[in-house]
Amino acid sequence: MSVLEVKNLTHTYGGNTPFVNDAVKGVSFTAEKGEIIGIIGHTGSGKSTLVQHLNGLLKPTSGEILLDGVNIWENPKEIRKVRSKVGLVFQYPEYQLFEETVFKDIAFGPKNMGLTGKELEKRVVDTCNMIGVKPEYFEKSPFDLSGGEKRRVAIAGVMAMNPEVIVFDEPTAGLDPKGREDVTEIIANYRRCTGATVIIISHSMEDMAVIADKLLVMNKGSLQMFGTVEEVFKNGDALREIGLNVPIVTRVFYELKKAGVPVPDNVFTVESAVKVLEKLRDGDGNA
Amino acid sequence: MDEVMSNIIEVKNVTYEYTDEENRFTAVKDLSLDIERGSFTVILGHNGSGKSTLAKMLNGLNKPTRGDVFVDGINTKAEETEIEVKRKVGMVFQNPDNQIIASIVEEDVAFGPENLGIPPLEIRRRVDNALEAVDMSDFKKSTPHHLSGGQKQRIAIAGMIAMEPECLVLDEPTAMLDPKGRAEIISTLLRLNREKGMTVVLITHYMEEAENADRVIVMNDGEIIADDKPKVIFSDVKMLKDVGLDVPQTAELLYKLKSNGFKVDTHALSIKEAAEQIIKALGTSYTDSEEK
Predict the structure, then answer these.
(1) What average pLDDT does the structure give for chain A?
(2) Are residues B267 and B207 part of one domain?
(3) Complex ipTM tops 0.90
(4) Cβ-based burial of A236 (10 A; exposed 0-12, middle 13-18, buried ≥19)
């Protein structure tokens, strides 16, 4: 079932000025319920501009965005409702923490949606349980937390609105490896618990190979490829041409294949690489 | 006395404490370290391991609570030589936007040497050299905010090079950049080191940036827990994971293969080397079975 449909979206910055620039050009794609879609593309390829349309932060110059079949700009006065259905987690979301306590910060979104009293409290507690914000943090100031913890709280604030679609703009940027792993885990867990659709902008092909179902490749404002992880990563040459690449482990497998080892083309994670090589070793041993 | 010391920086039993009214936090604990002239050293560590605090002590931005740091033999605590220390060791930080001040690239690069009171002709030479060194000469008349993150960070590095320091210390200079920008910075640093003999100390948590370093230091909890060549450090996958770091995907693959009984050398780092190791390990079982 398609949740979000982007049709022929174009966004022009600086119209009517000499600096006119098409940041996004004629992009169309559909996101199904419960999918994780990774958006990849180098800086300036239009990724951030694209996702800011999904919850109505930017208005398309032309084209439309359908949420559950309804154009989100059909009634511009209702655009705020769209923003609680499509949650957007910006880059460095911890810079937007502002409340006195962790609890109040996480409660801010659902409170604005009209939740009060016990219902509000339950929503915050449930979200915190789901993503591992411990109750002893509730009364702390968000500014006393470590970088990784702050990010977790900031993400919780968006998740507490129970969005059907949640969009992350480089959720792991600036974190250390442990922090990156934690955030990836939180995202996968949110999908598992809620069945929501997740869209993630990322620079890490290795991370996307593990977490994403589909990949959307942006280049110079246009959609270059959209398909399953396998469909996209099979186009190594095309990706390299636009300054991207396939995961490192896949590149190791290219070398193996070149040397005549009979390995498949669809190895994108360390886990599947180990399995394939074990089979190759054991299989041949039994022959 | 005129003999050139082989170490540009010497850190001797240094402790650094952050204190406010209520709290005291020891970020660096009794740490000693020598940085050899002309070397390329990478310091790895997770957030809060003390690596940035240490970096700021290397040019006297932070003064040790206990112990001493010597730059080219000068103690960073001595007030009268503070500027000399900062001229010898240039710092580059994470966010390029915070380090660029002028509205034209070449003026930004000239800012440092101008403040040193260097004559105009000499400034011209230094700015041209510095932009050349980071491969940004074509952009000298550009406006910095129209450049990419990687380009801006190269301008920030050029600004430091124009002061002609003997050593560059970079504190996570690639953390806010995309993969292309990161690759630009790393190749720029390697070139400066290999061709111009610049001493480089690079602080990062991207393991793949350490692959070509002479030496990798791992910090955890304010202390150095490992100090060796990259291949040796990266083959210790367990130690790195224990301190919250990850390893290049090639090292992780070989490590997992090894624990599954493959006879691979986990010191292989490049994609080619890793593939060679796998072929070798498969090779025996292959040829054996083929013969059967």
Answers:
(1) 91
(2) no
(3) no
(4) middle
